[in-house]
Amino acid sequence: MKKGEKTKNLILAQSLQLFSKNGFSGTSVRDLSSSVGLRESAIYNHFSSKKAILAEIFEKFGQSTAGLNLLDDELINMLNKPQKFMQTFSEKLLRKWGDIEEIHFFNLVLKENGTEINGIKISVNSLLEDAQKVWVMIFTEMTNHKFIKKGSPEIFANEFIAPLFFIRMKFLLDEDNIDLKSAIKQANEHTEFFWESIKR
Amino acid sequence: MKKGEKTKNLILAQSLQLFSKNGFSGTSVRDLSSSVGLRESAIYNHFSSKKAILAEIFEKFGQSTAGLNLLDDELINMLNKPQKFMQTFSEKLLRKWGDIEEIHFFNLVLKENGTEINGIKISVNSLLEDAQKVWVMIFTEMTNHKFIKKGSPEIFANEFIAPLFFIRMKFLLDEDNIDLKSAIKQANEHTEFFWESIKR
DNA sequence: GTCTATAAGGAGATAGAC
DNA sequence: GTCTATCTCCTTATAGAC
Prior knowledge:
Two copies of one chain form a homodimer. Chain A contains ten helices and two strands; from the N terminus they run H-H-H-H-H-H-H-E-E-H-H-H. Chain A is mostly helical. Chain A folds into two domains: 5-60, Homeodomain-like (Arc Repressor Mutant, subunit A), CATH 1.10.10; 62-198, Orthogonal Bundle (Tetracycline Repressor, domain 2), CATH 1.10.357. In chain A, strands 1-2 form a two-stranded antiparallel ribbon. In chain A, strand 1 and strand 2 form a beta hairpin. The longest helix of chain A has 21 residues, at 124-144. Chain A is elongated. The model of chain A has no long low-confidence stretch (mean pLDDT 96). The first copy, chain A, binds a DNA duplex through residues 4, 7, 28-30, 38-42, 44-46, 49-50.
């Protein structure tokens, strides 16, 4: 990181927090600068406009990984034990979702859903669809290797992911009431229930 | 409805639409009045403040029914046919969710999640929890009457509702891309899949 | 890179005529 | 109930000194 980027990153971090709490329109450059400890005008030394800050937040956090980065070797080697695989993955995913920056970003996406930024529409849907695609792949693989029973990988993916998103909304949305423990517990219950439906 | 309430209701309707699209902070009284066809000051003849409009929107739409009002006699008499019951209910629920005012209100709740209004916190969670409670009751009933297999009604409720919310987010969130047909199709697939897990 | 000062317009809200 | 006119404060953003 360049030396001069320190303040810029501080502005980005504070912006993410404030935007996620009060929305883009609900946050003034004044709010923002005072939370960083600068004057308003100093902000414009790092960003050309308020909207440019939002754009850069989405550049930084916006490339949804849909949990793809969680698929390390340890997990891949578990593909032949689907229940263990799903349980391990869920827990990793929820821990990632429980991270304060992830929570802020998710809240921001919910608040700014539909807003256009640099010609790209902010969309909750894209988050859901990305996750779905990954799991269609995984269940296709599992079906091909006969680790699970025959069936539509699309339906399997929906049925597996939907409750995880539900859990995220219930336990990992309000930063003052993060309940990772309950989230993981409920995810385990889900995986167990789901496994009964897809085991051979 | 009183005679003088006509304009007031028009203001409420337009506000719901604009707030849901641009957020509360992103909508000015000016935007609002011009969309109604009045001057700003005329708004204050019906509401004491901009915030009072938001409050009244939540009074009008806010009492989540969680689908309770969908439980008519026709449905209640189907309790002994759980699959048919769930399928009929889902379709009714999705049709309700596909209503343009419901979509606007849901988007508003997502945008203003966490905002306090008259001391009450706007919360997506309360929507989820309300729905969950209703279905815990239903599955308890079904279990007691041995229409479905033994199991935790709470888990059954989560597993049944979560995919419906997922479907709502996917097909009934963006008012310019409402896809009720796909929503109902996917809900039927879900019900069928879920039924296999809970039938005796 | 941050400061002070300032521009130019938008915000919510009120007063009083019709 | 709606209008015109107006108030006061806040908003994003820029200019130029240090």
